[in-house]
Amino acid sequence: MVVKLRLKQLIRYAVFTYLAVFAAPSAYAGSYIALAPAQIKIKTDPGSTKPTMTDFRLGYEVDEHKFELALMSSFDEDNLNELVTDIPSVTSIFYRYNPDPRSSVKIEFILGYSQVEIESTYPNVPTSSETFEGVSYGIGIEEALQSIPQLKFKIDFIQMYKGDDLELRLFSVGFRYEF
Question: What is the pTM of this model?
């Protein structure tokens, strides 16, 4: 009886939350794209490198909630003592939450899941490739341009991966356009 009652309360709560967030008549909803150059810092105990990427995102926004698919590809590799590192691709899914959607400068909390492929080449050694995946988190800042309100200037700081004596941190600066 108690389990049945709690299950009903949980279902009721889930339905009301869904309706409040996604089906409210005052809710703003829309899709967007974002484009930015990005730099991923690959930090290990011996040192760090910073290959650059092209960061392309497709997203959907409902009031203070955003859902994004991020696709990144290599733009330029970096090296450390002749060890050349490159990130051919990054695929991520992000949820972004803005606690104050009425503010002109929006600060967003980012939570997601990322898959990062890293290639490394050393002279006279075959190229090695590894894929790292896991939970990503960070913070984003954006502000609308006064002359074109659909165009937003954005900055993201995201921890893409941490573990195995390796950290992958993303820094990107770019634009987002709302349709």
Answer: 0.79
Token digits of residue 4: 């049945």
Give me the number of domains the chain comprises.
1
Answer whether residue 18 is part of any domain: no
Cα dihedral 54/55/56/59 (nearest 10): 180
Q: Is residue 107 part of a domain?
A: yes
**Tens digits of residue pLDDT in 20-60:** 555 555 567 889 999 999 999 988 887 888 999 999 999 99
* Predicted confidence (pLDDT) per residue in 72-102, tens digit: 998 888 877 888 888 899 999 999 999 988 8
- Measured between alpha carbons, how far is 6 from 14 in angstroms, rounded to an integer? 12
For residue 66, the domain's CATH number is 2.40.160.20
Q: Are 42 and 48 in contact, with CB atoms under 8 Å apart?
A: yes
Q: What gap in Å lies between CA 119 and CA 127, rounded to an integer?
A: 7
Residue 8 lies in a domain: no
What's the Cα-to-Cα distance from 83 to each of 50, 52, 161, rounded to whole Å? Answer: 12, 16, 21
pLDDT for res 33? 96
Question: Which residue's entry shows tokens 């698919």?
Answer: 69
Pairing verdict, β 105-122 and 125-144: antiparallel
- Residue 58 located in a structural domain: yes
Can you give the residue range of the structural domain that contains 82?
27-178
